Amino acid sequence: VKEGQFSVLQLVEALQSLTSTQPHTRARGVQLLSEVLQESYAELTEREELLLAFYENRLKDHYVITPPVLRGLQALTKSRRLPPGAAVSMLKALFQDVHSLMLAERACVYNMLINLMESREDLKGLGADFVFGFVQSMDGERDPRNLLLAFQIARNILLRGYNLKFTEELFEVTSCYFPIDFSPPPNDPHGITKEELIQALRAVLTGTPKFAEFLLPLIIEKLDSDVQSSKLDALQTLAACVRQYEDKDLVDFLEGLWSSLRREVFQTSSEKIESAALAALTALTSCLSRSVLKSDSEDSLSTFLDLVLKCKHHLFEPDLKLVWPSAKLLQAACSASYRAGHLITAAVMPPLVEQYNSRTQESLFSAYKDSLCSMVFSALSESNSSLQITAASLLTSLAQQTLLSDSDIDLAVDHLTRLLLTDEDESVLAVVECAGALAERHPAAFINKLIPTLKKEMFPAVRQRCLSALAAVSVQASVVQESAPVLLDVLSSAHAFSTDEVVHACLSLQKIAERLRDDEETSRCFHDVVIPRLLSLALQAALQQQQQEDENSWRRSQLVCLLMACVCSFPRSQVEVPQEERLLSALEELSCSCSHPLSYTSAAKCFAGLLNKKPETDLDGWIQRTVKRVSGELDRPSSSCRLQAFSLLIWVAKALLLRYHPSFSALTDKLFSLLHDADLGPMAADGFSLLMSDSTDVLNRGCHADVRIMYRQRFFSENSAKLVQGFNAAPKKKPNFLKALSNIVNKLPKQVQVSELPALLSLLLEALTCPDEGVQLSTLSCLEPVLVTPPQVLIQQLEALVSRLLALVGSPSMVLPFRARVLRALAPPLDDRKRLVRREAVQARG
Q: Domain named MMS19 C-terminal: which ranges (predicted)?
């Protein structure tokens, strides 16, 4: 039949068993015909109405013929060539005797209904008869497999606009299963779970607002149940249904719903029930908030919130146990909408504020203030460091509650100063933190007592802790004006201090600047005092050996880092760099000729920072000049300045990449060519990470650099193909290309990685075999996001991926960063319905 040698009607004519007087013989004939139809329903081209009439007539035959007849009708429902009206006549015949059918035959009928609803619009011509017929056929169904099919049909009836004259009957025939009470038998081959049935039934019950008048009383009734699972199902169903309802569907049931929800929060012993009740309250309030107010109608939201606000009196009884449940109820309703939040806040906040203001503002410890202070100061005088730490913490708390008098503060500062100048180290951190907390409220005591004392008696054993204390207490501009000169004096006398102490003084100034960067008075202090003094000290240090060293001293060349910090931070539109052309020439020369790494790197950064902000009209000449010089040095393997030229290349390339300058491609091509270089190849691969990363000192938005959006994505889209081609063409040095690719992909946004990784998967798998651990770790970071929801191309390469991952297991340091992520990803399979899946998940986590 499928090959066209016979038609289905010819087969019918040849099947003499169809007219046999023996029922079982006729059943075998119908079975053969049905099996042919199941395989060849798409080839039906003629007179399907004869087949349909034949099968409908056979439904009245002996009961042993009914199963194969239904299978044949199911095959016909899949055909797109059924004549008009065929579906209607078929259903009229089917609805008569569904109850008397066996399980498999009922499933066949339900599948026929699903097929016809998806393909035939003329079913709606049956009107309410179709719904009534389905209700009759479903009534009394108990098999969970068939219930899933029946719930799907009921859901389709609601969604596809069928006549709902028998709304109550449809609700009754489905709601009798609510809440679902089903425990799958052990080793169930069908794998049907209770949650599947719950979700399928919930989709029906919440599918139309016309069910509201029947469903809401049922939910209120089920909330009175003592069965926890029934309550939870009812609350979750309530939250789901009100998302489909309007206020008119709820108005008659608001009081009963509120009473039930309040009871579940006030009296529940289960956190799940409480959370579900609060979520249902939020959803209910949100539904009422969507109502359109009319002049002649009642505001249902205000009516409902009047009920909710009756529990606010519990907030003013903090000693009773209902204060927290009441607060949770009000918060849940308040978070539903702006209107609800406004109404609840307006009702609750004034009395709360009044209650707060009416109570005494004195701390509970006020009566014990003198005793506590005496105890604290006594403990600070002890030699036990643990006792000192505890006392410092308590002193901080007393200060924060404004319990300390001026005399107490003076005494506290004396104790803290003494502890800072002792030789013990264990309590220093607590003392420094306490000093910072007290200085924020009482700066004068620290200006007059602690800072002068530390300046006078800062002997070697305690210098670093004193420097930390100066940074900690500098929380106000008035203190900074006194502490900053002390720190600058340390730098001025660097010869008398160790390197660590000088560095600590610089870090202390940095902490102060970062903490008070938005304070105008502090900024003025740094501008007028600190920065000029720092620049002066740096210049003096660099020039002090001018007589002993030549003019190109590397000590003086380091000053370029200060220049970089200044000129690269200027807003281009507000500050003009003087003699910029001369400065650029000097920077280019220094970056290519200096032998000191800090100097030539800082010069390259400064040069790149200025180019990034330079106008287009003045930029091309400098780019051509730079490319020519860099290429000249890099193309000579014997050159002693190749490292310097490479540093300049990479920073200029980044400066042009950030602003989308077209000349960037020339520098990119040069960088790609260096991947073949025996000496600079690994550095070139690492250079791609620098191109894609955020710079902390120059070339960032904080320094007013010209940074365009999505520059990383643009770089990847324009250059990923070049990397792949270079990898395929490279006879050796392939690891450099893999490392470069990994560095680029690893810096892309996660969503871009997920979309682009499949095309690069083969190269990334190759990168996992690279001996460079940095490449391995970077590649694993690239693969991590796509492994969560693996695309088809990754599934096809699963064997190759697993084999490479197994090879890495021998190096635990590579795998350890992904341990937590893998364990989280393996958690859901532990609850899988299949025992085999659960067992494998347990083994994998182990």
A: 549-814
Q: Is residue 828 part of a domain?
A: yes
Handedness of CA 432, 535, 538, 488 (dihedral sign): negative
3-state secondary structure of 518: coil
- Is there a contact between 95 and 133 (Cβ–Cβ < 8 Å)? yes
For 807, what's the count of Cα atoms within 13 Å in the CB-facing half-sphere? Answer: 15
661-683 pLDDT tens trace: 888 888 888 888 888 888 888 88
Tokens matching residue 167: 């709304």
| Cα dihedral value 656, 657, 662, 667, nearest 10 | 80
Measuring CA to CA, which residue among 769, 837, 839 is closest to residue 803?
Answer: 769
Question: What token pair was written down for 703?
Answer: 């320094």
Q: What does the pLDDT average to over 537-562?
A: 65
> Is residue 744 within 8 Å of residue 688, measured between CB atoms?
yes
**SS3 state at 562:** helix
- Compute and round to an integer the Cα radius of gyration of the chain: 40
d(CA 692, CA 684) in angstroms, rounded, equals: 13
CA-to-CA separations, 795 to 36, 264, 440, 792, 798, in angstroms, rounded: 37, 47, 59, 5, 5
Residue 396 belongs to a domain with what CATH number?
Answer: 1.25.10.10
Match 């060539």 to its residue by tokens.
81
| Neighbouring residues of 566: CB distance < 8 A, sequence distance ≥ 6 | none
pTM of the model: 0.49
Q: Which of 541, 563, 594 is the last residue of a domain?
A: 541
Domains held by the chain: number: 2
How many CB atoms lie under 10 A from the CB of residue 818?
Answer: 17
829 domain residue, yes or no: yes
Question: Which of 843, 770, 753 has the alpha carbon at shortest distance from 808?
Answer: 770
In a domain, 11, yes or no: no
Q: Tokens 């579906």, residue?
A: 87
Contact yes or no for 723/699 (Cβ under 8 A):
no
Integer Cα distance of 216 and 741 in angstroms: 59
**What type of residue is 10?**
Q
CB within 8 Å of 702: residues ≥ 6 apart? none
Structure tokens given for 175: 């709601």
Q: Determine the angle formed by the axes of helices 620-634 and 664-673, rounding to 10 degrees.
A: 10
Q: By the 8 A CB rule, do 344 and 309 touch?
A: yes
Cβ-Cβ contacts under 8 Å for 526 (sequence gap 6 or more): 484, 513
Which range, 17-31, 438-452, 610-624, is most confident? 438-452
Half-sphere exposure of 64 (CA within 13 A, CB side): 8
Indicate the SS3 state at residue 609.
Answer: helix
Domain boundary among 486, 519, 541: 541
Alpha carbon 640 to chain centroid distance? Answer: 49
Q: Give the dihedral of Cα atoms 657, 659, 661, 667; nearest 10 deg.
A: -20
CB atoms under 10 Å from CB of 479, counted, come to 23
Q: What is the DSSP string of 10-39?
A: HHHHH-GGGG-SSHHHHHHHHHHHHHHHHH
Per the listing, tokens 């300046």 go with 455
Q: Burial letters for 228-253: b for 16+ Cβ neighbours within 10 Å, e otherwise? A: eebbbbbbbbbbbbbeebbbebbbeb
Residues 6+ apart with CB under 8 A from 305: 285, 333, 340, 343, 344, 347
> How confident is the model at residue 44, as a pLDDT?
58
Distance of CA 393 to the CA centre of its chain: 37
Q: Which domain range does residue 500 map to?
A: 372-541
Question: pLDDT of 156-214, one tens digit each?
Answer: 888 776 767 788 888 888 888 888 888 777 777 777 888 889 999 999 898 888 888 99
Which DSSP category does 846 fall into? Answer: -
Question: How many whole angstroms separate alpha carbon 814 and alpha carbon 824?
Answer: 18
Which letter, b or e, does each residue of 99-119 get, where b requires 16 or more Cβ atoms within 10 Å of its Cβ? eebeeebbbbbbbbbbbbbee
Amino acid at 361: Q
Q: Does the residue 412 lie in any domain?
A: yes
